[in-house]
Amino acid sequence: MLNRIRQLRKQKNLSQKEFAKDFNEYISKNKMDITPINFSVVSKWETKKSAPTKATYKALAKYFNVNEIYLRGAYSKDELLLRLQKYYSKYADDNFDITIDTLRNLVYFDIGEVVDEFVISKRLKPWNIKKEAPLLTKEEVADFNYWKKNFNVLFDHAATNWLITKPTLEATEKDIIGALVDALSGEGDNVVLTKRINFLNKHLYYKSRYPIKTFYDFNHPHPLDGKEYYLEDGKPYFIGDNNQRHYIGETE
To answer: Which of 187, 215, 193 minimizes the C-alpha distance to 128?
Structure first.
């Protein structure tokens, strides 16, 4: 994205001709020493055949009431947070099947996983919350103010900072996703996340070995001793020699 002139013009519901007329009236009214434009100039700006001068960019930013860097093509913080919210929302969708091995679905899973780790690391959710994933409630997912309040730390990272400060570097969607994942990963608290992993592992049970199928039961913890545990009538057990079942509390 080289500039946002077309996007902002459309938000004003103006044709290129109407926009040129309105902008010319604006610079005249404000006595700006800027060359008037016509729809042909606007078309060239929007198709990247030419670009506004530095002075014109400043005037356009004032006209649209936006930051000049944003006008030149950089992303706003809100845009990036909205993307994060959108991807996590897909991940949190009850009807979304993350087992489908497509690039897009893996992207949703990557975003979902790092967001869940982030909310644990930042103590937004307790490390021993009795839920596997997603950890955010539907209300939190849908509330953009929740994302603005808790995820602004993203922009302290070089991974995302360039997206909001370097308008000449055109980022692909893959670039944006990678930057969000990198920034969130950089906020991980290894101590808290280790507690979280151990907590999950203590409640992880096997349905079958081949193919491996597992589930979590947060009402029946088992010893975290490296064995593969199964669950029958609320009683955890592992399979020992000769396929013998050994229930917790029994002696091998």
So the answer is: 193
Element (H or E) spanning 230, and its range?
strand 229-232
The label of the residue with tokens 């001709």 reads 17
Question: What is the pLDDT confidence band of residue 251, given thresholds at 50, 70 and 90?
Answer: low
pLDDT exceeds 80 at position 222: yes
Contact predicate 124/148, CB 8 Å:
no
Distance from C-alpha of 78 to C-alpha of 175, rounded to nearest angstrom: 17
**Tell me, what amino acid is at 124?**
L
Instruction: Enumerate domains of the chain plus CATH numbers.
Output: 5-71 (1.10.260), 77-192 (no CATH), 202-247 (no CATH)
Q: How long, in residues, is the chain?
A: 252
CA distance 79 to 86: 10
129 Cα distance to chain centroid: 22
Enter the DSSP assignment of 39. Answer: H
Average pLDDT, the chain: 89
Strand order in the sheet with 235-239: 229-232, 235-239, 245-247
- CA-to-CA dists, residue 163 to 141, 159, 211, angstroms: 23, 8, 43
| 99 and 79 Cβ atoms separated by less than 8 Å | no
